[in-house]
Write the structure tokens for this entry.
Amino acid sequence: MQEFAGKTAVVTGAGSGMGKAFALRWAAEGMNVVIGDIQQDALDATAQEIKDAGVSVVAVRTDVSKLADIEALADAAEAAFGPVHLVNNNAGVEGYLDGPIWAATARDWEWTVGVNFWSVVYGVRTFVPRMLAHGQEAHVVNTCSMTSVVQAANMYGITKHAVIALSEVLWNDLRKAGANIGVTALCPGTIATNLFHGSRNRPTGLTDDGGNISADGEQLRERMHAVLAAGMAPAEVASRLVTAIRGGGLYLLTDHEWDDQVIARHEAIIASAVGEKAGA
Ligand SMILES: NC(=O)c1ccc[n+]([C@@H]2O[C@H](COP(=O)([O-])OP(=O)(O)OC[C@H]3O[C@@H](n4cnc5c(N)ncnc54)[C@H](O)[C@@H]3O)[C@@H](O)[C@H]2O)c1
């Protein structure tokens, strides 16, 4: 996609962080903007900023882990503006960080995988057939992570490996179909957002009696929140995304800070094939 003005963008997780920056950027590009988030007050605040800029916006409270909510978001977008050209499958949470992977409860998995992975499945399932049907140039942005391409360290990493794999399959299937739809597997590094405070929006129905937050997990979240605060501004990610969409490639890494880890993972995999570094 080269031109943005006059087209329609849908952004999930638009109440905070990168989703908010993407929504504001699409508004600045002259697009109609449709936003979803589970946190109503944050969603309303983003909608107000867009309205104040004189741009048309539709805001729909959306739980991205529910297919019916994503379908309702798409219906609202089409009712207001017609065909959707750009979708940011962006909402995500830090998820379970509260112990070894075997100690995670079914609800830890359901929350983390629901928000980070099923959301993207539902976004693809809902928006891509509609994009194919309208036939105009379109683009899907799936927010992966640098953790998608380094050795997975936790449940979050598991979900982000899955999202990049889904993006690769989507890219290949769309190319095979000769579709006029681009895909960006966006891999942000360290970005100044509220990601490590994601538990603020964990549905009460998806917690166990103990509340699912360990003391160690809480400390880790606060340490990581401070690390992210020193990271790249979300608006800068939005700028790089515009360039990447116009460029047409599949992957967008926001920076080279994680290169050593990417190389180390892939070298360990290759080396294992010849038995040089068993267990690496
Ligand atoms: N911040 C980083 O360093 C970083 C790095 C790599 C990838 N990411 C990814 O970027 C994406 C955006 O996160 P962010 O960093 O801007 O964090 P953020 O917490 O600032 O924003 C995430 C938004 O998602 C919303 N959300 C949470 N659960 C939801 C649900 N069930 N339904 C709908 N909305 C929901 C939150 O309310 C929030 O507004 C996520 O997919 C995250 O995994 C972030």
Q: What stands out?
A: The mean pLDDT is 96. Strands lie at 8-12, 32-37, 57-61, 86-89, 138-143, 181-187, 251-253.
